[in-house]
Amino acid sequence: MKAIVVKPHQPGMEVKDVNIEEKVGKGQVLVKTLYTGVCGTDRGIVGNKLSFTRPQEGWSELILGHEAFGQVKEVGEGVKELRKGDYVVPVVRRGCGVCLNCKIGKQDFCETGNFVEAGIRGKNGFMREEFVDDEIYLVKVPEAIKDIAVLTEPLSNVVKAIEEVMHIQQRMVWNCEDGAYDCRNAYVVGTGPIGTFFSLLLRTYGFNVYMLNRRDPSPAEEYVSTRIEAEFVNTTKGVDHLPKADIIVDTSGFPSAFVPLMHKMNKNSILVLFGTQTGDKVQIDADLVTFMVENNIAVVGSVNANKWHFKSAVNYLTMWKEKYGDLLNRMITTVVTPENAKEILENKPKGEIKSVIKW
Amino acid sequence: MKAIVVKPHQPGMEVKDVNIEEKVGKGQVLVKTLYTGVCGTDRGIVGNKLSFTRPQEGWSELILGHEAFGQVKEVGEGVKELRKGDYVVPVVRRGCGVCLNCKIGKQDFCETGNFVEAGIRGKNGFMREEFVDDEIYLVKVPEAIKDIAVLTEPLSNVVKAIEEVMHIQQRMVWNCEDGAYDCRNAYVVGTGPIGTFFSLLLRTYGFNVYMLNRRDPSPAEEYVSTRIEAEFVNTTKGVDHLPKADIIVDTSGFPSAFVPLMHKMNKNSILVLFGTQTGDKVQIDADLVTFMVENNIAVVGSVNANKWHFKSAVNYLTMWKEKYGDLLNRMITTVVTPENAKEILENKPKGEIKSVIKW
Amino acid sequence: MKAIVVKPHQPGMEVKDVNIEEKVGKGQVLVKTLYTGVCGTDRGIVGNKLSFTRPQEGWSELILGHEAFGQVKEVGEGVKELRKGDYVVPVVRRGCGVCLNCKIGKQDFCETGNFVEAGIRGKNGFMREEFVDDEIYLVKVPEAIKDIAVLTEPLSNVVKAIEEVMHIQQRMVWNCEDGAYDCRNAYVVGTGPIGTFFSLLLRTYGFNVYMLNRRDPSPAEEYVSTRIEAEFVNTTKGVDHLPKADIIVDTSGFPSAFVPLMHKMNKNSILVLFGTQTGDKVQIDADLVTFMVENNIAVVGSVNANKWHFKSAVNYLTMWKEKYGDLLNRMITTVVTPENAKEILENKPKGEIKSVIKW
Amino acid sequence: MKAIVVKPHQPGMEVKDVNIEEKVGKGQVLVKTLYTGVCGTDRGIVGNKLSFTRPQEGWSELILGHEAFGQVKEVGEGVKELRKGDYVVPVVRRGCGVCLNCKIGKQDFCETGNFVEAGIRGKNGFMREEFVDDEIYLVKVPEAIKDIAVLTEPLSNVVKAIEEVMHIQQRMVWNCEDGAYDCRNAYVVGTGPIGTFFSLLLRTYGFNVYMLNRRDPSPAEEYVSTRIEAEFVNTTKGVDHLPKADIIVDTSGFPSAFVPLMHKMNKNSILVLFGTQTGDKVQIDADLVTFMVENNIAVVGSVNANKWHFKSAVNYLTMWKEKYGDLLNRMITTVVTPENAKEILENKPKGEIKSVIKW
User: Fold this and answer.
1) Is residue C318 one of the residues assigned to a domain?
2) pTM score > 0.90 for this model?
3) Most CB within 10 Å of its CB: which of B108, B170, B342, D85?
């Protein structure tokens, strides 16, 4: 079948026929791929910038693709819930089977590091016409959101991060006087798909959201921020007018982007680190540490998501589609065929929020 | 009565008679001060290095002292539990009465900043022969630990920090296979009284504890680390041999002390910021941020303690006295009279773990 | 304006003009009522069966109605989020202002009992053409669900109960091997609107849901259970074939309905008490207590909901509308005018799931 | 060696020589038994009243004893912490290895039921001169409490129950205005060793404790209740004078003992079921269910304890010994030799709180 493959640790990618013999075993289903999304990790692998990528055992090449959406074509013996025709999204990371978190379905907190991730490390991905997977790693998706369900995977990571935040912040009373979060302010640094999802999710919790970038908004960003009643802030024009932040989410990975904002953090607030980068540096001093101590400030780095977060992500997409109409469709700014995937895998299209491949 | 007073924002201190007319009102008791402890904050006030100190409303001077232990001399009307002769430790911070955390007894998470702290800001402290206080702010202490109960206040802050850690780390499974924490490693940076308490408390939880300093241990530190089965580590000789840290506690306040240790942090680990300093700087880069993201690393700044933590601290002191004998007595390295307090308030005695004033 | 009023502790109700002078004060808005729902509590008040009902201070009559949905007509000074034209649902219970839970927006856990509830006790309700309310007690609703938003209030109570369950069950690992709840079984006793909402919500969490009643399903129930992939169980035909229950929710209030099911409870399971009744009795014995002890079984009675639960309920309704189409519309089995409200307030229409009044 | 053995499902017991060849394997230690405690379960096995008891695989008899305290005699290869001479208490239950709770060290919440319990079911117990055990199941005990450490096991179960209570009650704000629990009232039904431990532990949390029995206190009970500042209540004289209960702990197992107290439960309160009995019956009605619903009342059955609870129990014993002196020694009302164990295993000594065998 047709697939998009890379040779780990060599730049470049190829659309080609691969010969995979996958039998639908016990508890497994065959999924026809409908859409796969493209993100910075995919481009990092294609550009040979990610040291941790590696092929599946016994393979020299890696089939790319971890953001996927498909439809069940065939159901194996012993499958409990899924039926032919059901729409599904696969979970990316598969646990090590050894550490306690992996043993109870929290492989996003794998402690050994011996997990595999489809399309990234140790396991073929979903950029191919079809794939066989265990039912246990597939999340059912309502037909109503089949046009946007390819967004599930990136959103799942955001859901996990915010779930952690809400847990951590129960170290004290963080809700407002009315029991909700309408009095709380969030800065989201970076306005790509991840920044947009953080903004959407925090708005859903009730936070006043400020979407921060070092420039004015693109028309798509303008639309999104207006529609969800968030404020887009061009930080080069200053942030002094903003109220203190109860949460800052960094999706940029640049310490030079978020460290200068930290003096705006409110007492008991939290900084979420989500972006990963290289090459940027910034100086911190003892006064910043003292500030964090005296104000009970927390920081949390968050990566990946487990099946529960995928399920929640599907629920949020469904809810937002009803509430916001085509807002999420507008986030999908480019759709290409597998044959044309090279153009979006090697370069980021101008004005992109999310680019996807239609299979 | 005799008291130790400072003029906020002027260096120096004075032992003198103050004329305080305190009546034992409803729900209040009169406490005869037995011991008060001295810490860096007291010396900071005396040395005019702390900008936030201020006298009680209507006063030009401030009576110093926030680490105290005393005995009930007189009981006011409506007092519920306390009786004449009971030993007590007073809580330091009194809430703003406005924010939600202060309303439910969590003034250590006061959000307005409009709290007062006895002996520090806005309220006279306990370095005086006796004081009147509300029963609600007094924690009863068993007679058995009357010789060490002056350590309650510093320990209470440590209890609060570790309580937060244990809450935050429930974001995943952090315990070991046997349900306890014996497989976990803790680095404690700084070996003063706070570092010692963190080490004691983490050992009590079962952690393997490494007490880190930039020098070899003093005899007292040698004794303590051996007695509690922790390992004293002179970091100038390298830390490569240490196992990865599941928790790092910084009690130094110097980013140059703890940032270089962060590459030793295990997946899902946590860094506790407790020390406050000025003048130290260090560079952090995007790789460190990426490391924190990909390993789900958390950081928490922690300050102060509420009554619950004081009560827990009393329980820990009681338990440790039974278990470790005179270990805690040995932490009190200097005892002076009020008349001689100047020497320990203006200078740190050599080999000090904790200096106290006996009233 | 037109309103539906009762004289507490006298049977009957009246649709009549009431003369209310409500000014839109600071932080308040004027809401035009669009729909009000009717439940057992309303009928209990009309039938003079609820001892706790009482009029608002200064009134001899009580305006009925606690399940409401309306549209903002006028916005007072100092209102932050709401705009004219916004759709809203009001929270029912207003806290005592004294106990700690009410102080932090958790009036559903009011400890003094000195709360008021609109349309039930101490506060006029929403069965009138318009009402003034504080913004803080109004939850904004997306226009997309304006046809079903009257269901928010009953659902909010269900959301609160399940939120409690999910909290309580974190006393151990309750999720399945894959991190979700698809391996867990729920019995929901009673198939009215509340039972239906519990079934919907538990299905959303992934539970296998069994909807239990003492009879075969009505066509509406048949439709609902099929649509959400739950199994309707006529308990008069036996429950031996059901798998063990991880959660049993009783919405009936009859101990004779749920106690005989308790032997089917799995280890670590939980029983939710939600229904309120009188006149039913059942015998329990020491063996049942022993069974609960040895299997770590929990029980929780749950009542009311706070603003956070109302907000969540709005999100669930929005999501379910996208996912299930007109399923929720079908739950509204009767719509009458205020003039004809008597017929649904004095008697339960045949085949009713939810009856509402259109204003 | 000498051991106390039973033939499961036959009444009676025997002190005799057993021929056990236990080698100290990897990660194991040999423990010399110092004390074993006797409780209702032991007497139930000896009296052939417990259906679930069974011998270890390959055995026809069962060595009795699950409450033990001993000293390490020999240390196997790969043992990490324990040294020869260390004092230890063994954990009773060993997990099934299959369910998620057992996989993470929470075998007290085993879901399959396929655990074994030393001296009770499927595993030889500790009523013998020495035993080999895995280090992972042994909890180190400070020498200071070697005279009372045999109380660890019964206390561990109480610690687990209260840990659950404190978790469950975080469904709302349960602490008092000062952040502690001094405003809360606890009824403990039953004044045996378990009731006494609940009373001690709840007092330590700050609760006002009422120790309830159907008779006046024995001298030992009088001493204990006075010493810990709890009130002993003879319920046959009425309970109307007691303040409302925030927690009721039943250690009796008789529903006729605790159900009649439930009308005294405060809003948001919790009932802990700990006792197991047979043969007692009581009627409950819909009004009680309604009361539990409208007041958010929870119930939790609690059984067993894991290693973490054993460690906490050791800490509490240590702390209480320092605080209360010989209070805990006085709880050990009878000490016999193995040869005389029959008298305390077949009959409960008059005035017993805890009977133990000295090896």
Assistant:
1) no
2) yes
3) B108
